[in-house]
Amino acid sequence: MKTLQMPGSWQQVLAEELVKPYFAKLQDFLIHERLSYTIYPPEKDIFSAFELTPYQQVNVLLLGQDPYHNENQAHGLCFSVKPGIKPPPSLVNIFKELRADVGCDIPKHGYLSQWAKQGMLMLNAVLTVRAHTPNSHKNQGWETFTDAVINKVNERSDPVVFVLWGGYAQRKLKLIDVNRHLVIQSAHPSPLSAHNGFFGSKPFSAINSALSDYGKPEIDWQLPGV
């Protein structure tokens, strides 16, 4: 495994982070993990969120926790799966709320890259996972790295919408200047919690209302392939 390379604008933004000892240690951990286990997402997809949403184009940051851990699911965007892969339960609930909130037809796939291309950084707190072993790469350095990403987005002079679903994401609130940015919070879309405040929270219309107020383009939530 070669040294992980951040794409484009993020390389410069995160340059200081990429040379810190913890990041070298994290890369060593990943090298050894790949020698013994299947790791998701594939190496080429670890930084997909950053490739699809350059730093200066981030208008929304959606924070997930851990990549999907089953075969062919994770591809570097939180909550998203590649075309042809059955949408997991949390994503099914996201689509239900999307339809209830803004009337979008539910697509036949769970590939959310169209949202990322419109300025939504779809960031997991941990960017890799061992196959079939959730949270197996927590506390190895990814959280330090993605906290730095949140800090860099928070430093942006123009306002950003941060979307924090569930208790884990909401613990990152301390990294966000709520006087300059909007934070949208609710329960997590997981089947375990969606009925406790995710359904009916109308996050998609709230995001677009904020973007409109900021003079930024609203997101077209309707995914192709319905």
Automatic annotation (TrEMBL):
Instruction: Read off the Pfam families from this record.
Output: UDG (PF03167)
The record, for PANTHER family, names: URACIL-DNA GLYCOSYLASE
Q: Which Gene3D superfamilies match?
A: Uracil-DNA glycosylase-like domain
Tell me the gene name. Answer: ung
DNA damage: is it a keyword of this entry? yes
Q: Where in the cell is it found?
A: Cytoplasm
Swiss-Prot/TrEMBL catalytic activity: Hydrolyzes single-stranded DNA or mismatched double-stranded DNA and polynucleotides, releasing free uracil
Gene Ontology terms: biological process: base-excision repair, AP site formation via deaminated base removal
Q: Where is the active site?
A: D66 (proton acceptor)
Q: What class of enzyme is it?
A: hydrolase
Main location per the UniProt record? cytoplasm
Instruction: Report the protein name in the record.
Output: Uracil-DNA glycosylase
Residues of the Uracil-DNA glycosylase-like domain: 51-211
